[in-house]
Design a protein that fits this description.
Aminopeptidase, 2 domains, twelve-stranded mixed sheet, 34% helix
Length: 288
Amino acid sequence: MPEIRDVTEADFDAVFELLDARSRAAFGISQQDRKHLRQRWELPGGERWVAVVDGTVVGYVMLDEAHEIAHAAVEPEVGDALFAHVEDAARERGFAHLAVAAVPEDEPLYTAVQRNGYTLEREILRMWRPLNGTLPEPVWPDGVTVRTYEDADGERVHALLDDEYGGWDPNYVALSHEGWLAFMTGHDEFDPALWYVVERDGELVACALHWKESRGRGWVKDIVVRNAERGRGIAKALLYRGFRAYADRGVERVGLKVDSTNPTGAPQLYERLGFETDQRLGIWQKRL
């Protein structure tokens, strides 16, 4: 059996290489990024372990405060040992469940989640839209104002996301505000000029949070509209505003992820606006 221990800074390269190799084997190209891994390591509330055999890192698992796991191991016995370890740690923290994203192409993880008692709960759709042709002007309903994000908006924006996501997803886990700020703003993909807040009579009713463009691509990280304001075209207007801002920066296409079970009509809206699904990520869950 492998030795399982806490990660150290000296493990960073070995862990990245393990994740990178797994991604290449599954998808033909790597979807890993050293900056993103570093960011995940620095988030508050996370725990990380490596499995070691004869001094070599052969497996990795991370547990974050959202009850989500990142896991990589080629050998089944190593993967199973890491799952057992992270589940014990989650129970000690009082977590009621764990979740991990897995797709059939990632055969070691896909078989490991099933072998360890996880069940497919839902799918997350990754969608893309090219920014070609004429991009419509956003049309806003009467009585709302739109502006870019300021630091003082942080708590209200975070609360709006928690209220709306938690309102329909029974497994949604709210991050601490410290953790949310670190994840959302503590890196160079944060650009407040691409975060839009919508208010009515001073109350925050919607927001769209975009990552800074990279390699000709933009990304809609979050977009929510308060339940009472849905059906008035705010989400569509926010997307159009983001499209035009990205186009002005030379972006060629915009992506996002959406829960396939989202009952607000978001997946259907994205399809109507020209987004197409290129990947379906299974979210596997286990009750502890």
